[in-house]
Amino acid sequence: MSAAGLCAVVVVVFFMAFYLLHRYGDLRKQHSLVLLGTLLSWYLCFLIVFILPLDVSMTIYNQCIHDNSNLTPSQTQGELSDSAPFQPSSVANVCVKPWSYIPHHVLPVFWRVVYWTSQFLTWLLLPFMQSYARSGAFSIVGKVKTALIENAIYYGTYFLIFICLLIYVSVHLKLRLTRSELQTISITAANTWGLFLLVLLLGYGLVEIPRSYWFSSSNSFLLAKTYFKVAKLATEKASAEENLADVMEEVVDLNESVRFNHSLRKCVDTILTKCPIRYQEEMGRNPQSSHCEGASFPTRSGLIKLHEKVISAVQRHNQTHVQWSLLLDKAFHLEDIAKSQGSQMRVVTRTFSPNHLGWVRRFIYTPTVEWYWECAFRKTFCRLLAVLLSLLSVAVVWSECTFFSAQPILSLFAVFVQKAEQHYNYILIEMVCFVSILFMCVCVYSTVFRIRVFNYYHLVPHHQTDAYSLLFSGMLFCRLTPPLCLNFLGLIHLDSAISHQNRMQTSYTSIMGSMRLLPVIADGFYVYYPMLVVLLCIATIYKLGSRFLNLLGFYQFITDNEFTSELVDEGKELIRRERRIRQRAEDGKNQRWAWRERFRVLATSERSGADYSELDENSPETEMRTSVNRSYGNIEEQHTGLLQDNSGDDSFPNRRSAAGQYLSFAPSLKGLFDDV
């Protein structure tokens, strides 16, 4: 493999990160710096996960060379990995070079660049860009000033706590605090913070992911949950519309009070560019219509706050409308599946014809194939996958509770890796490492994509995620991935600071430094805190977190809850109403098409009759035919005008649709960075 395979992994991981960014972000509307920072943070984190199994196989290969020679571990890592002439023939016969062999000098440099770049992003650049994106200031200098002040307050507190702990550790452990020791302490502090959050997210994902696949095998469960989401989203949609209307009233009053010769008029014009088009047109038609001489003028700080409110209200309004449209399509699809389950023709009959059919749905995923998948195979497939994922979850929980035991080896992942190591089966080693660490990453990352912190952080698919949430997700990934990889290396007993085994370290661990410098962290927190995942899994099984949120008024879908049943019934009624509205629109479209076809046939017959008749222009027959054609043209214009679909929305001119799936109401957010 050497260079070719490593380059292939790098390219594949890049396209995977780019696809996720395309799904959640808007590549056409959002600022390029926001997209670049998010893409780089996601890409580096995914790259660590995919390259770490190769590092494990290279470490086992170097350990084999060390065990079959009289050299020290440093000599084994430094010379024998790249210098075949120094290897004895017996070593070359016993230690088979991995198919994924990477030269020794590549991985340390690679890990150093990837790790420190991700840490620079998560602790310095991305927080600054977050504050910059949320700032309502009207100049670059104002945005930079706001971002610096917010980050100085937030991270200054962290820095003060770190200095106090550093002084305590240096006095208590009598450390000399050299440059390498300071670097190790800083890395350990960052990994400790990440591990604290990692266990919380992992405990939720280990239960929720298998359970979600098990319940998704039932179409009735999915339909009831969709009704529940529709009822909740209807409330959020109404609240977002009301909030936008209130904010627009403030903007209208501001536009009427600040005249065009005022010094703050440029700031008002900047705010107007962030408003929906229909509000801009209304204010353009009625400029300063009700200006009062005694009205108080706003201050610049008040305009900055109003600017922030406008950006937030418009973004939330667009998100709810896109989610509403997609959720309705999902509900209609599930209802069609439920009606087609007993079909004798074994075809999924859709109530509404899709606007656009891609080549996949036309030639591969036909209605017959869809029926067999949805009604025959999906239930069995989802349940088998749920059972497989449940076994992986049990293996992870067991290994998290027993990985500190070196003799006997109780961690299941360590057992699998060491069994494959005895036969030097590098492919099996890499597959075990890749599947296990990928499953742990999916459990953690999927929780990051699902959680929602009020309206401040929420990853919304179909290009609706705002800049703040994208950057925040990149920060979380960069802080969670390094402790996740260290935890995985501890599960397979390749981290000597935890397993206390005298063996070679991976190149990734060598970059982190030795955690034995802080025995409280290495022998205490890193060993016993991951056991908390058992309690978190139990709490997730019984939905204790969801029940607690219900008590606080943040209603979650719980099957045995009375309020959930009420919301399901409410959502069902909303779907019925929307179905009737869409059905009327579909009927109007069909009638309009029938009228057009009818008049097209009449016009064709008139033209063909004119070719075979030679009537005089002033004859009564010619005048009658002219009047009939004129009347048909008028009727067609009337019907076309009356029945014309209003496919666009004045308030959302930027809406676009690809294959009826991805929608974007978001106005151009480049103004966030280009107000000057």
Provide a descriptive summary of the structure in words.
β1 and β2 form a beta hairpin. The C terminus is likely disordered. Strands 1-2 form a two-stranded antiparallel ribbon. Strands 3-4 form a two-stranded antiparallel sheet. The protein is mostly helical and 676 residues long. Belongs to the LIMR family. It comes from Poecilia reticulata.
Give me a quick take on this structure.
Pfam families: LMBR1 (PF04791). With 676 residues, the chain is mainly alpha-helical.
Largest sheet: 2 strands, antiparallel
Largest beta sheet: what is the strand line-up?
A: 1-2
Amount of beta strand: under 5%
The total count of strands amounts to 4
First-residue to last-residue Cα separation: 51 Å
What is the ordering of alpha helices and beta strands? HHHHHHHHHHHHHHHEEHHHHHHHHEE
List unreliable stretches of 5+ residues: 78-86, 612-676
Q: What labels would you give this structure?
A:
single chain; mainly alpha; two-stranded antiparallel sheet; globular; transmembrane helix
Strands, helices and their partners?
Elements: H1 2-24, H2 32-67, H3 73-80, H4 89-94, H5 106-134, H6 140-173, H7 179-215, H8 219-257, H9 265-273, H10 277-285, H11 300-340, H12 359-363, H13 367-402, H14 412-422, H15 426-450, E1 452-453, E2 457-458, H16 467-491, H17 496-499, H18 507-512, H19 519-528, H20 533-541, H21 544-552, H22 562-612, H23 620-643, E3 657-658, E4 662-663
Antiparallel strand pairs: 1-2, 3-4
Helix pairs in contact: 1-2, 2-3, 2-5, 2-15, 2-16, 5-6, 5-16, 7-13, 7-15, 7-16, 7-20, 8-11, 8-22, 9-11, 14-15, 15-16, 22-23
